[in-house]
Amino acid sequence: MNRAALFDVDGTLADTNHLHVTCWWEALRQAGHTVPMHRVHRALGLPGDDLIAQLLGDDRDKSEDDTLSTAHDTLYGTYFDRLPSFDRAADLLRELDRSGWRVVLVTSANSRELEALKRAIDADDALTATASSDDVTEGKPAPDPVHHALDLAGAAASRAVFVGDSVWDMKAAVRAGVTGVGLLCGGVPRADLAEAGARAVYGDPADLLEHLGSSPLAR
């Protein structure tokens, strides 16, 4: 049976969370909303509409959601040519590929953002497939993105591990019946990741790679 190593991207393989915080904060500010950056950070990992709902509430004027998302995308797009990946992120993906895992990226980013992130990580040769927010109706923490990734990998949930940096990643993993592994490099505390369902927590991709043999991704 195939084994699937599923990876979130922003904040997990690429050091982009704080860029997203800044871009969402500025998009909201331009529309007249004052939202503390720490609240924006905690909402990262949700699809755009859900993130806006988390920050502005369900009773907001939903007619401006598209404008807010477009403003964020435009601001974030200015960084596309210099998005930073985390140290040894590509090495981690390649090692898993060599070990027989089918590596799939699972992200709330749209396809345009995902292409920029893939260029930053530079490990396309290790990827079996990618799944973006454009591929599912409902994003994390719903299990839909994880189920879609499992289909792409041809793997059962019991033979998969999902690595992410947000509570939404861990909740999606739990709801899909997949083992969740948390990384601290996205800025979410260890206790929050564990409470959301992370089976194990590591510092960053380099730390996970160093301890791969004793992790849920061991051979």
UniProtKB/TrEMBL annotation:
It comes from the Bacteria. One of its GO terms (molecular function) is hydrolase activity. Pfam families: Hydrolase. Coiled coil: none annotated. Keywords: Hydrolase. The keyword Hydrolase applies. This is HAD superfamily hydrolase (TIGR01509 family).
